[in-house]
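stage 2 :: seqdesign
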């Protein structure tokens, strides 16, 4: 486990729409673009092996994209190389961060100066949610999955710890970029669970002409 003193001031940034990473969760990624292959090689030479996952945001009235200021760093904890030189990697979430400035450098990928202090609790133990009603939550989740035609291993979900369950669903459910960002920025696990339930409710109402309500 990394401590606050281990966190670097500058990290490589991997902007990827819809790819949400949360502390202590795992995110598998397929790396094939040359600039990100270079990023991966450079990251493996560092002691921290951190990559910052950040979601791009659309700029109204233009084709340019800017980055959300808050992302989550992941430590490279697994990788394998394919025969054609691509990588399958796994990032394990360490801590969220706020981008202070984007850097100009000779690297083909983006780096940024970041601050970690606002998210110090990310480095602690797994969070719990004392108000979490698993039975009610699973009922709502089942309806959401049915409406979207999604499937999952329900037995594994029922047995998962609170944080693993809520964070894994936040990462995997098919929400848009801004909705995923809201889940990322939720200050506590309880807030993230409330946001997740709200997004499922909205999705069901939109899907049923505004008439569907979760009870």
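stage 2 :: out
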């Amino acid at each position: 486990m990394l401590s606050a003193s281990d966190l670097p001031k500058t990290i490589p940034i991997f902007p990827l729409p819809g790819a949400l990473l949360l502390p202590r969760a795992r995110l598998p990624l397929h790396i094939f673009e040359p600039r990100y292959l270079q990023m991966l090689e450079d990251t493996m030479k560092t002691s921290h092996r951190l990559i910052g996952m950040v979601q791009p945001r659309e700029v109204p009235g233009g084709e340019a994209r800017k980055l959300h200021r808050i992302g989550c760093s992941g430590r490279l904890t697994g990788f394998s190389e394919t025969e054609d030189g691509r990588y399958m990697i796994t990032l394990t979430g360490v801590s969220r961060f706020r981008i202070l400035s984007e850097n100009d450098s000779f690297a083909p990928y983006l780096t940024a100066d970041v601050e970690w202090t606002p998210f110090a609790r990310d480095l602690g133990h797994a969070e719990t949610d004392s108000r979490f009603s698993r039975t009610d939550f699973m009922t709502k989740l089942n309806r959401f999955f049915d409406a979207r035609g999604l499937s999952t291993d329900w037995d594994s979900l029922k047995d998962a710890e609170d944080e693993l369950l809520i964070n894994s669903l936040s990462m995997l459910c098919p929400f848009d970029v801004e909705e995923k960002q809201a889940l990322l920025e939720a200050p506590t696990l309880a807030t993230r669970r409330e946001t997740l339930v709200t997004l499922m409710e909205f999705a069901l109402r939109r899907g049923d002409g505004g008439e569907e309500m979760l009870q």
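stage 3 :: structure notes
- DSSP finds six helices and eight strands in the chain.
- Strands lie at 10-15, 26-31, 50-54, 56-58, 65-67, 70-81, 87-103, 111-115.
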